[in-house]
Amino acid sequence: MVTSQPNKCTMNIKDYKDLFYKIIGSAMKVHDELGWGLLEPIYNEALHLELLDQGVDNEREKHLPCFYKHHKLEKYYQMDLVVGDIIVELKSVSELTSVHRAQLFNYLRLTKKPVGILINFGRSCLQGERYTYCEYTNECLLLDRNMEVVGEV
To answer: Of 115, 107, 105, nearest to 64 (Cα)?
Structure first.
């Protein structure tokens, strides 16, 4: 089912297309160099360095504060990589599941960042899923490689 408010939810996501290509291209280089099935922190550091080599500024293991009734908690979420307004969530698993997607969706909702990508290094072929967060409807929507909404998740 496609969102009923596509214009409000997808107005500027195509602006991120080139940066998504750089992130995915860098992830492919890491996957080609290291292979598949290593621990996630190895890919995290390698992708961080590859992005820097490509001239793409990024932050690794960025802390996302959590609050309860306006009190900042000592506990926090830790996002794998943040590239500008794009949250990059990395996995090294045999199959992506709804739990992995929910983690990215929570980060998108909490930060109000417009787009995110879930990358899986755990298979012989690199896997990537692009999503946009629609603050208007509080939905995360799957995007195709052309940055067009595929539908709700």
So the answer is: 107
